[in-house]
Protein 1
Amino acid sequence: MKNPGARHNLAVAILADAHIRFTGSAGYYCGGLIDGASIEIAGSAGWGVAESMLSGTVRVHGSAGSGAAAGIRGGTVVILGDAAARLGVSMKGGTVIVAGNCGYMAGFMAQKGTLIVCGDVGEAFADSMYATVCYVGGRIANLGTDAVIVSMDFREAEQLEKTLSAQLPVSLRGAKPAAADFKKVIAGRKLWNFDKREWRIWQEAL
Amino acid sequence: MAELQQSGIFAPKVIEEIQAKAESGLYAIRGFGTLRERRWPTFDDLTFLPCSLTRIPLEGYREKCSTKTTLGTRFAKKPIQLDIPVMITGMSWGALSYNAKVALAKGAAAAGSSNTTGDGGMLKAERENSRTLIYEVLPSRYGVNIHHMRMADAIELTIGQGAKPGTGGLLLGSKVSDRIAEQRDLPIGVDQRSAARHPDFLGPDDMIIKVEELREATDWQVPIFIKLGASRVYDDVKLAAKAGADVIVVDGMEGGTGASPAIFQEHTGLPTLAAVCEARSALEDIGLYGEVQLIIAGGIRDGVDAAKAMALGADACYIGTASLIALNCNKPIYEDDYRAIGAAPHACHHCHTGRCPVGITTQDSELMKRLDIEHGAERVRNLLQVMTLETQMLARSCGKSDVHHLEPEDMAALTLEASAICGLPLVGTRKVFAL
């Protein structure tokens, strides 16, 4: 589709194994709620690109607005430019890769899946997560509540390198840190909601 | 010796609460809804003025009084058609057991009504047993699945909930079983908190685009509801209408919840009576009353509450807690088990524990067996039918051939506050006491 004119709700809820390419920028929710389709945006995307997708691929050649890949349950979202605030919020699976930087509160309440940012990330990164694994190539402005940096073993770094090499063009990949230099961020599981004492009390009561 | 006196401010219950906080470092979480003795105007502050000489009543058993209810006539190609105006509100599979969800679906279908999914997606058996199923899209997006969305008869974009407007859902780890964890993409046994706001829009302007996305996803066929927890109802209803809602749901502070901080249930939101009045005014002031349908929820107990809500401007009502009570919530059976969790029949608000003695708000397979789906469905159907009959009786006595013809003029206020809120004359004065 040529000259999409940044219109909203393009390629929403596509359930076919189709490839759709937009030559130009898309508005809100492009590729939202898809299952199985491959969407390519040769431009930038507005808010909520690929939100709640089940499977498929969404590639944004430019940058993406707030809430990119929010609530995705599977599939792959690749943003070759930067992502704005709230990247991968409440994501429940799948893989999100940003070649550039991302804004505030990325990964908030993320549940499962993998979130990779090759550049810098904004404040409150990976706040209040459950089981999503994040990798950051650049600087972390600050970590969100309960987010912790942990070490990455050789196999993980190898897997991360494979993922990045497969999804990013050589020109971009070459300028980014080596996979082994990425910081791995997960939930520290110290928030009250990981505490099972009360659960045990109720289980024992009845 | 002077009589010992307890403080009215630091009453025994307050002292207990302060000491519990001091000992645990935790705020109280519980289910059910507000437990406070009511000090605000409710539907009980209104009375119907049936026909006598100035108006002619309809014969109770001979003359027809329609209860057919159509919702979503504004933009949807396929508005939903119900036999009755009392519907089952959204309650999640997770907060409720599988048996409870399926019993509600079957009961609602048998009564010609609808049921609604909740903050956990759609159950296959729920869809199979529903006649009309409303699919909720909440901030958490748990279980959101485009295939399920497309099987729904309406979509409800939930902004808030009456029991706890302005905050997200809560499901304690005892209810995050392996099945619930799989459905919601969560780790097993970890307390689940939902986000308070949607991940991909912030305010009313971008919600317009969100509503359009949901229409695209469902091919512009089914109605889009927007559900609001009652707070600034007058403004919120206008904004929801502007965003393109076919139907607006307003959930008052008497609404229930499976779990939330107790302070939200007791100290936030507008009472349902006030909410329906503000919602109607909002729609009238923008010229959309009647075009955008209004559903009222929050503490609706019987056909009288439903009739009063409809007379004040609602097109239909949701029930939640009442439908669970129909399933035996708080019934004096398994009394030892109520005691084991620190509750008692008629005083159980322990939905959050996951140890519901009657099998409704639990994921424990043994407790769940206590709720027989067929028997539960029959009880839900009976309640919906009786509530509808009560609504019809009142409408006929007011001379109405359709329950939707009930109007404010059919009622008077029993208190000054209700007169001011509802714009109804105070009994004995024939005057409206409004500022």
Protein 2
Amino acid sequence: MQWRKTLFVLHRDVGFVALGLTIVYGISGIAVNHRRDWNYDRSVSVENLNLGRAADLVGNVPADRRDAITRDPTAWAPDEEQRIVRAIAAKVGRPEGPRNAFWRGPDRLSLFFGPGDDDTVDYTPSTGEAIHTTRKDRILLRQMNFLHLNEPGRWWTWVADLYALSLLFLGISGVVMVKGRAGLRGRGGILVAVGIALPILGWLVARR
Amino acid sequence: MHRLSLAPCVLLSLAFAACNASGPDPAAKPAPVAVAAASASVQPARPRLVGPDHASCSGAETCGSRTVEPGSCAEAANVRDTSFTTTTDPVTGKTMNVAGQKLAGLPVVKVADLVARPGDFAGKTVRVEGDVSAMCTHRRGWFAVQDPGSKTGAYVRVLTAPSFLVPPDSIGKKARAEGRVEVIDVDPGAARHYADDHKLGEQNAHGAPNKSVVIRATGAEFI
């Protein structure tokens, strides 16, 4: 019949157009699906360092001050803290110094170098140890997630809606354009039923 | 052929029969979101709480008599204002990101005071200023602020969703925010998430629901 031929042509052409977005949404979908297991947007690199005690980082100070600095970080004078921060920055290869540094806990001095938390150092004065954490966007995956999670908003919402409608069209047209034993009245019908039953059963099982 | 065509109907019938047999489940179908559009400048939209911890909720901020955790990242899915503007901070001259409503210039309340005496501030609208020590990077629905120069690590979480989103890369910046103080229960699952993933509240994260003081912000500036 003529309408089947037209549907086939439409199905084929829409399928061609939808391929790019299907790749984006499919790959990002798998990545986001496992969000409990990993950071789907960013790769994280953690380096454990021993930078030495604060008294060794502060530079030239009297012996009694060195003892006080070692014993109690709250006793650090502001200029001493600045010197320690500069020393930490130099030791991790960031001689230009951090854009901000503050205490995220009584024994946790945090230094922020890059934008956000892209490049941070958490220094523990009591042990002299530090954790240098760097984060980077995952190549391609970050961009795919950006689109998949509709971070652009606005006009991209329409693109995503059109893509969703095209998937509906592809699904429905694919079902009705095949006739005979492979079609809806035969094997295709069974497969469609399985496909519809799957989400229903999933919902029934998952809600318990 | 005819027998085969009945297969889909049989399967569907079985599925719907099973659905009906189990009876209605009020927890399975949350109520629709009620958006208070008329007084949008003051009253934030009621969020649709999702996720396993809110399965029995009906879309409100309470589960029976218990106040649930309203600052979950999932709440950010219903944010009304996802934009922010970049300008120059008149105080410091540095670049500043502004999100939500313009700040009214309220007197600053110290985070240490909020944490020590939350009952004194509950329900009041306050302003906090300090360093951003953590934020929800995925949904950008909240950030944690601590007093500048504080060495205790004491923080208050500022809930920005559903009013607005925290601009990206706000961790480590200075922030000013205004909003209503609330004392909420943080369920153990959420507390564990904050402790493990955001390094917040390690000292009391694992156990029974914790009382936590939060600020439901109307606007914030990040410098």
